[in-house]
Amino acid sequence: MKYDISLTVNGDTYNLAVEAWQTLNEVLREDLNLTGTKLGCGSGDCGACTVIVDGKSVSSCLTLAVEMDGRQILTVEGLAPSGETLHPIQEAFIEKGAIQCGFCTPGMELSALNLLETNPRPNDTQIRSAISGNLCRCTGYNKIVDAIAEAGRRMKPQSKARR
What we know:
- By secondary structure, this protein is of the alpha+beta class.
- The protein has 2 domains: 77 residues, Roll (Ubiquitin-like (UB roll)); 67 residues, DNA polymerase, domain 1.
- The chain contains 5 helices and 5 strands.
- It has a 5-stranded mixed beta sheet with strand order 2-1-5-3-4, with helices on both faces.
- The longest helix has 14 residues.
- The protein is globular and about 45 Å long.
């Protein structure tokens, strides 16, 4: 049996029929073709599938799509203000070398956004705590922490990604 839901993803509204067992990750990747949200562990441990739902970080692999009816969702595709301009977080990740294989990057960037919107000038300990649910096997985290701190310096306090 399918359930009709309405999602607003990156500012666009979608009306979908989903199975009760489908995860938000599956719907984003397979139905909406938003493949920036990765599926890593499938158990909520790695953070690769992190998205922002109504202003909070969520593991999309553990979240049922039917529970998202009427919700506002931000994926990495909605982070940049346009196809021509990167978000300050994305710029800082590139400039600081915080991207290696890139698999964890979308989840890291969204966790960073969630932190910087509430604490625009976090210290290293606060940054490490905010990304503690995101695993990276390539960078050793120092460059990621540096990138998030730099993004915080660049972001205007009132600026927000598209929602």
